[in-house]
Amino acid sequence: MRRAATLVLVAAVVAAPWLVAAVVPRQQRYILHVLIFTALFAALALSYDLVVGHVGSLSLAHPAFFGVGAYAAAILATRAHWPFLADLPAAALAAAVVAALVGVPLFRLTEHAFAVGTLGLALVAGIVANNWVEVTRGPLCITGIPKPVLGLPGGPTLAITTLPGYYWLALAALVAVALLYRRLTTFRLGRAFHAVRDNEPLAGAAGIDPLRYRMLAFTIGAGLAGGVGALYVHYLSVMCPEEMTVALTVNLLVIVFLGGVGTLRGVLVGAILFTALRRGVS
Amino acid sequence: MALLEIRGLVKRFLGVTAVDQVDLAVEPGELVSLIGPNGSGKTTLFNCVTGYLTADGGRVRFRGRDLTNVAPHRVARLGVARTFQQVSVFPRLSALENLLVFVQQHQEEHLLARLLRTPRLRRLEAEAVERARRLLDLVGLSDKADAGAGSLSYGQRKLLAFAAALMPDPDLLLLDEPAAAVNPTMINQMKDHILALHRQGKTVLLVEHNMEVVMDISQRVVVLDHGQKIAEGSPEAIRRDSRVIEAYFGR
Fold first, then answer.
1. Element (H, E) at A111
2. What is the ipTM of this complex?
């Protein structure tokens, strides 16, 4: 019975574009747009929960990593004409590298001081995005970011140009992030993360290096956020500094704490409640 | 060669010398107790040895290896286990997981192997689960294996923390007041556990206030007062030592 229900749910999620077209043909575009946002926000929230929910570090810097990935993809795609499949990992890597570099000094701070330090980083990143006009074009935004094209050079390619196509791409990204999230937060890695979160001195006595696991969650979380940033700008085809303000942190905090911090299902429910229902009601 | 060798250890807190030039050697297989009035520096000494505090002077050696100011997780991986005075468990992990977490860092460091969950890792995990169940059985918590550690009683958490320290099969065990604030039955249980470890050839350094326990099981007793070592010897000798009596009861 449960199994059957799960299958129906999975089928409905995958077939959503057709269902929407059949049920509400006149609002199809809007609803698909909301669903795409929901999937991207859910993936972003999962990457955020790795840090907040699993190693218990209240980072407020997530918009910065999302922004680094978004700008990296936008710049590589428009100026260097990198294909989508190259700029996506580059965006994730750029965000992860930035996180690894700023993580070293930031993790010298603990608890509230860490939160404030990461908030400072997010603010600075926003200022840089607004003012480093040569690179980010500042408030003029980077425009004309091409639609994603899947496929290897020389081989057959598949351009994602329709809303359903983008919906499935976003869904695939969400599934990939969710699978990685599961891998990271269960078994030995998850146990080490949770040990650091629940009792740091005791984690040390267990042979766990708390800093190493905090850095690991922070860096991987940032890398995933950067990847989501790349998907986001390829979808909207424009990247502006307003996309990475502290308001994004607030949204992420609401999603993560609304559904249930530290749980896959909770974060997914939070993302759906926050993104889809909010837009559906208004 | 002594397993643990502390020489001239000094730790100051804002002008208060909590540990003052302490020398202490523990031979392999020995069961040594560290006693002294409250605030005499016993726990501070533990914290310096296990990397939780940075010593202001002196040296700590473990199997001839310098342990001075080495980070706690490195000390643990070298084979030194410790328990904490305040009962310390991972409240949101199950009792079984509380034990498992204590052995995994000693076995596999590679991130990729952990993500892929290699067959070798799965085998190690299965062995760890088996060992953890044996230890839970030993301390009488086998029916609590899947219970959240936060839901256990004080005494049960204390036993769980003790079992966790045994999980990586440490060469040296530092126990900080294992018999404090538990009922008499459990004190006897704990005493038996420590003696059993001693018979297995484990080296144990014990901080304890319960004199009955200390005098019953220790081979050697070291007494600290105001951070200084004031006496050292067999339980019988310590019982009669005038400096010790003075430290505890005043002149």
1. helix A111-131
2. 0.89
Q: How far is CA B68 from CA A148, B58, B72, B207, in A?
A: 56, 8, 11, 20
Residue B170's beta-bridge partner residues? none
Is there a contact between B153 and B95 (Cβ–Cβ < 8 Å)? Answer: no
Q: Could you tell me which residues are beta bridge partners of residue B65?
A: B62
How far is the alpha carbon of B249 from chain A, nearest alpha carbon, in Å? 34
pLDDT in tens, A104-123: 999 899 889 999 999 999 99
**Option in B51, B71, B102 nearest A206 (CB):** B102
Question: B104 and A199 in contact by Cβ < 8 A?
Answer: no
Residues of B with CB under 8 A from a CB of A: 50-52, 71-73, 76-77, 81-84, 88-93, 97, 100-102, 104-106, 108, 111, 114-115, 117, 121, 125, 164-165, 168
Q: What is the pLDDT of residues A16-25, one digit of tens each?
A: 888 888 888 8
Q: What is the pTM of this model?
A: 0.90
Give the mean model confidence (pLDDT) for residues B28-33: 93
Q: Locate A17 and state its tokens.
A: 């574009």
Amino acid at B117: R
H-helix or E-strand spanning residue B229: strand B228-233
